[in-house]
């Protein structure tokens, strides 16, 4: 009986916390790309404490599982990126965790957490960006996926997702 109750409480807690998942509840635009989203106050405080300001950026390998790839395939859902250089208090090889959307004309990646190789996850707000339309999906992208040339982009700190 004790085991069943523990299992029930654990399941309830997981369900409760999963409904508040970072990146969930984002309104989608007609093309399937994510709409505006506020940066939580907790994330803004953490970024100020770490000395990260809007516009600060770091080069990242967009997908930790596809580093150094000439072409990268993204799927809707969670993503783990790897920093290539120091970024505020984070050393190279720190992780950025976020969400990918592939439904619009280009890939959208929003980051909600960062983690150094030896530290805990810290909330933040950042987006992956590339100039010259390089986040635009290649024509061979299938529904629910996006293929890009290259595996590196810049992650920029933001105060809101637009």
**What's the number of helices?**
2
**Terminal-residue CA separation:** 50 Å
Strand content: 25-35%
Uncertain regions spanning at least 5 consecutive residues: 1-22
Structure class: alpha+beta
Brief summary:
With 162 residues, the protein is an alpha+beta fold. It has helices at 2-18, 41-50, and strands at 37-38, 57-61, 71-75, 77-83, 95-101, 108-115, 122-129, 145-149, 152-157, 160-161.
Describe the structure.
The longest helix has 17 residues, at 2-18. Residues 1-22 have low confidence and may be disordered. It is globular, with a radius of gyration of 17 Å. A six-stranded antiparallel beta barrel has the order 2-4-5-6-7-9. A two-stranded antiparallel ribbon has the order 1-10. The chain has a two-stranded antiparallel sheet with strand order 3-8. It contains two helices and ten strands. It has helices at residues 2-18, 41-50; strands at 37-38, 57-61, 71-75, 77-83, 95-101, 108-115, 122-129, 145-149, 152-157, 160-161. By secondary structure, it is of the alpha+beta class.
What would the keywords be for this entry?
alpha+beta, six-stranded antiparallel barrel, 162 residues, 17% helix, 10 strands, globular, two-stranded antiparallel ribbon, 2 helices
List the helices and strands and how they pair.
Blueprint: H1 2-18, E1 37-38, H2 41-50, E2 57-61, E3 71-75, E4 77-83, E5 95-101, E6 108-115, E7 122-129, E8 145-149, E9 152-157, E10 160-161
Antiparallel strand pairs: 1-10, 2-4, 2-9, 3-8, 4-5, 5-6, 6-7, 7-9
């Amino acid at each position: 009986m004790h085991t069943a109750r523990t299992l029930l409480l654990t399941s309830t807690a997981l369900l409760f916390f999963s409904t508040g998942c970072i990146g969930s509840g984002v309104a989608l635009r007609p093309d399937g790309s994510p709409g505006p989203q506020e940066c939580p106050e907790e994330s803004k405080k953490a970024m100020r404490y770490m000395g990260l300001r809007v516009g600060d950026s770091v080069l990242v390998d967009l997908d930790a599982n596809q580093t150094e790839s000439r072409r990268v395939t993204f799927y809707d859902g969670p993503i783990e990126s790897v920093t290539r250089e120091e970024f505020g208090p984070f050393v190279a090889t720190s992780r950025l965790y976020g969400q990918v959307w592939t439904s619009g004309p280009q890939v959208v990646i929003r980051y909600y957490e960062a983690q150094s190789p030896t530290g805990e996850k810290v909330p933040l707000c950042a987006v992956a960006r590339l100039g010259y339309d390089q986040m635009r999906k290649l024509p061979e992208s299938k529904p629910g996926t996006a293929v890009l040339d290259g595996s590196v982009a810049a992650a920029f700190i933001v105060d809101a997702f637009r």
